[in-house]
Amino acid sequence: MRYTHGVLVRCLERLKIGYLIAVMVSPAIATAGDCRSGCEAVSREGHFRISVAPAEGEVPLRDHHDWILDVWDANNNPLKLDGLSITGGMPFHGHGLPSQPRVSEYLGEGRYRLTGFMFNMHGDWILRFHLVRQEVQDVADLELTLDY
Question: Comparing 82 with 8, which gets the higher pLDDT?
Fold first, then answer.
């Protein structure tokens, strides 16, 4: 199938507009730099607040590393969750994370060590934290930009 330059440009413009609309109507996404000093987000329904940072203070490229996650309820009380999982990827590139981060340890007072993060390229990433406490399930999205 052959496309002219004009058709390709219009398709790319539509994709960019769609992406911008999706970002603008999604208030639950917290945007941050590279999270070296920590990034915060509030879950979509407002049940949880999270703060996350790389355990060693750096976000290495193409190397597995750990992050530390703190979780609070809406009243700023630290929470031990009944369930926590992490997904994510690069929506603009159309792929997920090249690794499968998971909870490796509960450190107490709402703090978790997450193991298995890896980023294989610079750019815009979204990390999605699936949080469960008793009957409450919510999602917190964190958008970060890695520029190596």
Answer: 82
Between CA 35 and CA 24 the distance in angstroms is: 21
Q: How many angstroms separate the CA atoms of 83 and 80, rounded?
A: 9
Mind listing the pLDDT tens digit for each residue in 34-81?
787 789 999 999 999 999 999 998 888 899 999 999 999 999 999 999
Q: What is the pLDDT of residue 147?
A: 86
What three-state secondary structure class fits 58? Answer: coil
Query: Going edge to edge, which strands form the sheet with 39-42?
Result: 39-42, 48-54, 65-73, 111-117, 102-108
* CB-based burial label for 111 (10 Å; 0-12, 13-18, 19+): middle
* Of 79, 62, 85, 70, residue with least CA distance to 35: 70
46 C-beta neighbours (distance < 10 Å), count: 11
Nearest to residue 96, comparing CAs of 125, 67, 60, 58? 125
Q: How far apart are the first and last CA of the chain?
A: 37
